[in-house]
Each structure stands twice: as structure tokens, then as C-alpha cells.
């Protein structure tokens, strides 16, 4: 919903061209609320003019959709990190997505980068203030 709100708030910068949903209950509600093409068919949504695909799915579906979208040569921004996948799955994702644009917008404090920064802080001595930022 964050991306839909961003598109609504800053239409000069963002445009939501289509939305794939799994549940039929959301189809009409999202169409009415966001005045956008909504479908349960990924190919139908991808036919809408777009620059990239924002992937917002549970961890359990992330790999499947990453691979399907990468096979279609889509630029992908995934909200869900695929780093929690088993090593074999990570290797498969790596091999099958070489040369593709996949960006991860992980917003959680347990993101691997933030965990490493936190682990290092213990070795620095007393800290009065710390600001952590990262880019993907």
C-alpha cells in the first residue's frame, strides 16, 4: 500500500499502472480505490505500460515471482528480501537472474547490513549517538 500511496501523493514522479492481486475480494476494491488496472493474471498486468515491477509478496512466494519476472526480463524492486532463502535457493536465484536488475528495499532493522553494523558497535566502546542508513 506504501507504493500506491506514494503514487497518489506524488503523481508527477510515480504512476501505478497495474496491480496483481491474489484474492478476488481485492479486485473491485483496489480498482475503485486506486482507479488502476487490477488483475489476478500477472501477464495481463505486465501488458500495462511500466518501467519496473514492485514485488510485494510473502517470503514464501518471493523466489517464485523473482524467477518468473526475471525470465521476462523485467526490472524488479522487491520489498521482501530473498536473503532468508536457503543457500541452494539463493544460488538458483543468482544463476537465473544474472544480468537482470533486481533491487531490494528491505525496511526491517534485522536486514543483514544493519545486523553487521549493530554487531560492530559492541566493539567500539561507549556510544552516545548512532545514525544508520543504507542504500540497496
Task: Write a concise synopsis of the structure shown.
The protein has six helices and five strands. It is an alpha/beta fold and 136 residues long.
Sequence stretches where pLDDT stays below 50 over 5 or more residues: none
Rg measurement, Å: 18 Å
The biggest beta sheet reads: 3 strands, parallel
What is the first-to-last residue Cα distance?
Answer: 21 Å
Query: Which class of secondary structure composition applies to the elements?
Result: alpha/beta
Mean pLDDT: 84
- Spatial sequence of strands, sheet with the most strands: 3-4-5
Shape: globular
**Helix percent band:** 40-55%
Number of helices: 6
Task: Let me know the number of strands.
Answer: 5
β-strand percent reads 5-15%
Order of helices and strands: HEHEHEHEHEH
Question: Notable features of this structure?
Answer:
136 residues; two-stranded parallel ribbon; 6 helices; globular
Question: What can you tell me about this protein's structure?
Answer:
By secondary structure, the chain is an alpha/beta fold. It has a three-stranded parallel β-sheet with strand order 3-4-5, with helices on one face. The mean pLDDT is about 85. The chain has helices spanning about 1-10, 25-35, 40-45, 60-70, 85-95, 110-120; strands spanning about 20, 35-40, 55, 75-80, 100-105. The chain contains six helices and five strands; from the N terminus they run H-E-H-E-H-E-H-E-H-E-H. The chain is about 40% helix and about 10% strand.
Amino acid at each position: 500500500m506504501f507504493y500506491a500511496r506514494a503514487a497518489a501523493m506524488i503523481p508527477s514522479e510515480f504512476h501505478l499502472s497495474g496491480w496483481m492481486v491474489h484474492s478476488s475480494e481485492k479486485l473491485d476494491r483496489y480498482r475503485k480505490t486506486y482507479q488502476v488496472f487490477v488483475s489476478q493474471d500477472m501477464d495481463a498486468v505486465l501488458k500495462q505500460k511500466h518501467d519496473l515491477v514492485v514485488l510485494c509478496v510473502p517470503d514464501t512466494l518471493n523466489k517464485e515471482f523473482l524467477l518468473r519476472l526475471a525470465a521476462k526480463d523485467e526490472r524488479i524492486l522487491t520489498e521482501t528480501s530473498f536473503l532468508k532463502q536457503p543457500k541452494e535457493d539463493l544460488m538458483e536465484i543468482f544463476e537465473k537472474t544474472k544480468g537482470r536488475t533486481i533491487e531490494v528495499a528491505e525496511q526491517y532493522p534485522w536486514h543483514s547490513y544493519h545486523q553487521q553494523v549493530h554487531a560492530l558497535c559492541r566493539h567500539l566502546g561507549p556510544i552516545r549517538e548512532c545514525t544508520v542508513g543504507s542504500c540497496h
